[in-house]
Write a structure and sequence with these properties.
The complex is a heterodimer of chains A (about 325) and B (about 325). Chain A contains 13 helices and 14 strands. Chain A has helices spanning about 5-20, 30-35, 35-40, 55-65, 85-90, 95-100, 130, 145-155, 205-220, 240-250, 265-275, 295-305, 305-315; strands at about 5, 25-30, 45-50, 70-75, 105-115, 140, 160-165, 175, 190-195, 200-205, 225-230, 230-235, 250-255, 285. Chain A has a 7-stranded mixed sheet, with helices on both faces. In chain A, strands 9-11-10-13-14 form a 5-stranded mixed sheet, with helices on both faces. In chain A, strands 1-8 form a two-stranded antiparallel ribbon. In chain A, helix 1 (about 5-20) runs parallel beside helix 8, helix 9 packs across helix 13 (about 305-315) and helix 10 packs across helix 11. Chain A starts with a strand and ends with a helix. Chain B has about 325 residues and is of the alpha/beta class. Chain B has helices spanning about 10-30, 45-55, 70-75, 80-85, 120-135, 150-165, 210-230, 255-260, 265-280, 280-305, and strands at about 60-65, 110-115, 140-145, 170-175, 175-180, 180, 200-205, 230-235. In chain B, strands 2-1-3-4-8-7 form a 6-stranded parallel sheet, sandwiched between helices. In chain B, strands 5-6 form a two-stranded antiparallel sheet. The chains are: A alpha/beta (about 325), B alpha/beta (about 325). The interface of A and B includes residues 58, 98 and 101 of A.
Chain lengths: ~325, ~325
């Protein structure tokens, strides 16, 4: 299997799905300018630049999705989604329900997230939980090149609005990736990235890579961590998490987003509600603090959950 | 099976306006009597609704907002299913999941609605983009008010529609009120149509209380959109005769302004027109009003007899 980067995987997914389905189109700020090969291949009708106006980009996608097109919109940086919340949350997420099922909204919202680029809190904000909390939406946040491709293909084929978060720092991360139908990965399925018997690490996006490092450090201390990559945050694959915790009896959730009402809180609640009796130690979360993402490299490093913090959290469960 | 109404005759439009008036008066009466949901009335704006909606064809699509009774009824919606929806009944157009504020009827081409003021403006561009790219016939009419025209999305929508050549009839129903605030407090100009020029969009303002005048302006606008593929802004200058929502007692409304606009009531004006041009008598006109009221009485009875949704419907229709 060929090795490609996350950025290439996203590009392949777009091309394959645009080839497969003429209803798929992509638009956003600079989409046509930065991807001339897409314009060349699919034409200016299906690959469009837009004004710097997130609310109308999102609204246009929602209206188009309800009436026969399957838009992919590139919102660039996740904090820009704040301007697009009405269309995504109030319209795409709710109008199927509120219309008694008359409409569907097959659309994908691409947004870059993840600290590490020093661009500060108005360009870096892990706000995936906002959308997990909103009914009618799906939320995807992969960590590997294969998952980026396979999940983006599935997101484009899904008949519901999907928020697809792309951690900027993973762009050059490479991995083996299939082509065509073999590349598909279903939404809503977590994966056991590394099997282990002593503790369950649950993470997603960049946090998965910190957990990999932590798992290796723990292995040196004879603690075998099982690493679960959620991949999709909504719908959440509860069974994969519960199965693992029932095996290990210990849970540490790791994510870059802040701790309050985050995905980690939900995972902790899930396990407390459905697997409390198997827990051998308290559930721990390793997250960034509840502060805006800093821009200084030194502060950004301090902000990010890193492998040593994961190791420390795991070791505390064995004291 | 729903039937799209296209009757552009003065009598046909009058009957639609009478039905809308009877519907909204009935809902106000039921609220006043207690134990009935609040609604946002479009009373006074019936001519604006019917004049535009009847200028459309069966392939055209409509986006509306929370003050939608006139648009829905003019297009052919069944008042029984509308009242059922307001009451949260299973026979409502949205299975009771919309309530009064966001009734859509896909079969009638009354597509997406939003009660987030201006939300419909954000969606209209996408609906029109589908029409254009999928080469479907027809245009898109998007109804909003002067309040929505003060939202940023108004400008974003018109700009994109112009840049992308989208076939949208923007219909600004300038009813002078933005929820509980008079337009004079939020705008230094009286009219919205001049804003269109900033985006290279053609526009006009029409007397929104004269159904025949609205129809004429709307037909011309629709024809221009069909010919050019370009958007158009039609401002219907009208008046919201009732408060923002059922409980609004209008204590803050200037009585002389209200009296001025009540004298310009669109139904009275159409009756005058029917007398002068078609020889309708007072008793014939009264019979038309009675007929509309009887239809609404029957509609209410249908809604009352209808069942509420089964509790299992709580979690359906969330995902496709």
């Amino acid at each position: 299997m060929p090795q490609i980067t996350v950025e290439q995987a996203i590009g392949q997914a777009l091309i394959e799905e645009m080839q497969r389905d003429p209803r798929v189109l992509i638009f956003g700020e600079g989409v046509a300018t930065t991807q001339p090969h897409l314009v060349q291949q699919f034409g200016a009708e299906r690959v469009r630049n837009t004004p710097l106006a997130e609310a109308i980009i999102a609204g246009t996608a929602v209206g188009a999705a309800a009436t026969g097109l399957r838009p992919v919109i590139d919102m660039l940086f996740a904090p820009f989604l704040a301007y697009a919340m009405d269309a995504i949350v109030n319209s795409a997420g709710k109008l199927r329900y509120m219309s008694g099922g008359q409409f569907a909204f097959p659309l994908v919202v691409l947004a870059k997230t993840g600290a590490g680029w020093g661009v500060g809190a108005q360009h870096t904000h892990n706000l995936e939980a906002w959308f997990v909390h909103s009914p009618g939406l799906k939320v995807v946040m992969p960590s590997t090149a294969a998952d980026f491709k396979g999940l983006l293909k599935s997101a484009i084929r899904d008949d519901n609005p999907v928020l697809f978060f792309n951690d900027m720092t993973l762009g050059y991360h490479a991995g083996e990736v299939d082509e065509g139908e073999a590349a598909l990965i279903p939404l809503g399925k977590a994966v056991v990235a590394r099997p282990g018997r002593d503790v369950t690490l649950v993470s997603y996006a960049k946090g998965v890579h910190a957990c990999w490092q932590a798992a290796e450090m723990l292995a040196a201390r004879r603690i075998e961590a099982e690493l679960i990559d959620l991949r999709t945050l909504k719908p959440l694959d509860e069974e994969t998490v519960l199965t693992s915790v029932r095996k290990t009896g210990r849970l540490v959730v790791v994510h870059e987003a802040g701790p309050l009402c985050g995905v980690g809180s939900e995972i902790a609640a899930l396990v407390a509600e459905k697997a409390f009796s198997v827990l051998k130690a308290p559930i721990r979360r390793v997250t960034s603090p509840d502060v805006p993402t800093p821009s200084s490299h030194a502060l950004e490093r301090a902000f990010l959950p890193q492998a040593p913090a994961v190791v420390a959290a795991v070791r505390s469960l064995f004291d | 099976m729903e039937t799209i109404l296209t009757d552009r005759s003065p009598l046909g439009m009058h009957e639609s306006m009478l039905l809308t008036r009877a519907y909204e008066e009935k809902l106000a009466e039921l609220f006043a009597a207690g134990n009935f949901p609040m609604t946002c009335s479009s009373q006074g704006q019936e001519a604006s609704a019917v004049g535009v909606v009847r200028a459309l064809g069966p392939d055209d699509q409509i986006l509306t907002n929370h003050r939608s009774a006139g648009h829905l009824i003019a297009r052919g919606a069944d008042p029984g299913r509308m009242i059922a929806e307001v009451m949260g009944k299973a026979t409502g157009y949205c299975g009771g999941k919309s309530g009064t504020l966001h009734i859509s009827v896909k079969e009638l081409g009354v597509m997406l609605t939003s009660t987030i003021v201006g939300g419909e403006l954000s969606l209209a561009t996408g609906v029109a983009l589908s029409k254009k790219m999928l080469k479907q016939p027809g245009i898109v009419a998007c109804f909003f008010g002067d309040g929505a025209a003060c939202e940023g999305i108004f400008h974003e929508s018109l700009n994109l529609a112009s840049v992308w050549n989208l076939p949208i009839l923007y219909v600004c129903e300038n009813n002078q009120w933005q929820a509980f605030v008079h337009r004079r407090e939020t705008m230094v100009t009286d009219h919205l149509s001049p804003r269109a020029a900033s985006y290279g969009i053609a526009s006009t303002t029409v007397d929104g209380n004269d159904a025949n005048a609205v129809l004429k302006s709307a037909l011309a606008a629709v024809e221009q959109i069909r010919q050019t593929g370009q958007p158009y802004l039609l401002e219907t200058y009208t008046y919201r005769q009732k408060g923002h929502i059922s409980f609004d007692d209008q204590a803050h409304v200037d009585p002389s302004e209200l009296a001025h606009w009540l004298a310009l009531d669109p139904l009275t004006r159409m009756e005058q027109h029917l007398r002068e041009t078609a020889g309708f008598t007072t008793s014939q006109l009264a019979a038309l009003r009675t007929k509309a009221q009887e239809r609404i009485d029957a509609a209410l009875e249908f809604a009352r007899q209808s069942p509420y949704p089964d509790p299992s419907a709580l979690t359906t229709d969330v995902y496709a």
